[in-house]
Amino acid sequence: MDKLQKFSIIALPVIIIILEMLPTGVVMFFGxxxxxxxKTFSYFALLPVGYATFAPFICAILSCVTLVLSCLYLxxxxxxxxxxxxxxxxxxxxxxxxxxxxxxxxxxxNMLSLTGVLISLFISCQVLxxxxxxxxxx
Length: 138
Description:
This protein is mostly helical. It has 5 helices and 2 strands. The protein has one domain. A two-stranded antiparallel sheet has the order 1-2. The longest helix is centred in the C-terminal third of the chain and has 29 residues, at 79-107.
């Protein structure tokens, strides 16, 4: 494992968590007397969970789990840990794109934000990184 790979193992979850803390990740629409108002929230905010938007919060919790597991992986690398991180990262990716797909298909509203796209992009990089690591054990 080279230095760039070791750096990426820790840097990607940290970047993802920082992006998830920004207040522009989750997009929600609220009805008012004059029409619809677009509001944005952090992935860690509980208000979207109260309005049945669970995926971003699940993604945020799983990103914290992957940070801890990535640190443990760097201390003592093993195939089992790499597979667990890969599975959790793939689940995070699905949770990160679910609001976009659901918003476009069922609500007819664009629930896309730049922060959300960046989060999905970095999660996909994490999935590819750990996929490469798991394949290197074979």
